[in-house]
Amino acid sequence: MRRGLKISLVTLTGAALTLSASACGGKKAETGGGGDDKKTLKVGLAFDIGGRGDQSFNDSAAAGLDRVKKDLNIQTEEISAKPDEPDADKESRLRLLATKGYNPIIGVGFAYTNSINKVAKAFPNTKFLVVDADQCKVEGTNVLGACFSEEQGSFLVGAAAALKSKTGTIGFIGGVNVPLIHKFQAGYEAGAKAAKPGIKVLPAKYLTEPPNFDGFKNPALGTEAAKGQLDKNADVIYHAAGGAGIGVINTVGAAKKLAIGVDSDQYNLPAVAPVKEQILTSMVKRVDLSVFDFVESVSKGTFQAGTKKYDLSNDGVGYATSGGKVDDIKAKLDQFKADIVSGKIKVPTK
């Protein structure tokens, strides 16, 4: 069930979400203080296209925000992006959050990178996080970029796909043809060939080309792409297509073939419930952890600007075991993981 939360920028002006993140009492510190034990935090989060309810990338960020509320006892505000909006709209949204005292502020998705780099300069006392920082680069002493080694997690699910394929042919469907998604494709293909050198990996199918980002949110596009790869004898298909991937999973599952989810463990999603037993695994990307880690660091006064990498070594990426379909190959997958962490295997990103 989709429940994308869209809050107009006007409604934010009346929000008064203030709760001390400190265990002890004391006077309220100025907004943006990073090293004070006594301060008030109001966390603002701007979602990527699809918003809360996309059952993939954004929902992983939402899970991190929910954990912030529960474990840190900090109140939050969230807003959604509009389809195909210009950077100027993202900047306006971020500036309004900052002006209203939201600190820290989180932009979910690489598309926020340039906007946060600009806005952060105007609000030096406010801490910002870019989830999936573009090319893993951010600017400013008050900006953190969370970067993920998607290729490493994709290597493991690629190995699983090859080991489980009965036809010897597997497929990959990317949402939008951008460098970030190329990392998923590269890792998947490398993992498949490492596990079974003779495996046939169909040419990758990308749903849209930028600036059209429907490939991350339109399930109908995923449905058509999946049909095309099934017709070419693929019996395991991995999607890196956000909300559009729901169409991939349902189509592959209905054909009694195996699908691989992305970003979150997609096995228990309501939208794919009828075909859940056809989900082989999911490449898990701990966007939730990056959101929580960032807010916690600001609340504790330990924030450090720059970039933070989430990979196999710190379980920032990985694979899901729900459904039990990889239980019999788990030892092999974990050996691949160990070899990647040790540096024995170098996973390509292109």
TrEMBL record:
Residues 46-349 form the ABC transporter substrate-binding protein PnrA-like domain. Pfam families: Bmp. Keywords: Cell membrane, Lipoprotein, Membrane, Signal. It comes from the Bacteria. GO terms for cellular component: plasma membrane. Coiled coil: none annotated. Residues 1-23 form the signal peptide. It is a lipid-anchor. It is found in: Cell membrane. Belongs to the BMP lipoprotein family. PANTHER family: ABC TRANSPORTER GUANOSINE-BINDING PROTEIN NUPN (PTHR34296:SF2), TRANSCRIPTIONAL ACTIVATOR PROTEIN MED (PTHR34296). This is BMP family ABC transporter substrate-binding protein.
